[in-house]
Amino acid sequence: MTITLKLTAVGNSTGVILPKDVLTKLRVGKGDTLYLTETPDGFAVTPYDETFAEAMEAGRDFMDRHRDALKELAK
After folding, report:
1. What pLDDT does 49 receive?
2. Pairing of the two strands 34-39 and 13-16
3. What does pTM read for this prediction?
4. What 3-state DSSP class applies to 48?
């Protein structure tokens, strides 16, 4: 399925309006947060997942704390 989206002005920014059927399939609504992830094929839009966000933050924290060890392991 291909859906054409239009960009629109939102204050000093630019936004995209998603059709109702897309919001329904994503199970999101006004005020919800979405992820825009770059993939090899373009971009993917997915709903915010608190568990995933917490796991990503823990991973970033781990990598920050063990940066030197990870650099050595990468050699």
Report:
1. 79
2. unpaired
3. 0.59
4. coil
**Euclidean distance between CA atoms 48 and 37, whole angstroms:** 11
DSSP state of 17: P
For each of the domains in the chain, give its residue range(s) and CATH number, in order of start: 7-74 (2.10.260)
One-letter identity of residue 10: V
Instruction: Give, for 11, the enclosing helix (H) or strand (E).
Output: none
In terms of Cα–Cα distance, which of 58, 34, 54, 55 is closest to 46? Answer: 34
Does residue 58 surpass a pLDDT of 80? yes
- pLDDT at residue 51 in the model: 85
pLDDT single digits (tens) 16-30: 999 999 999 999 999
Q: Are 45 and 36 in contact (CB under 8 A)?
A: yes
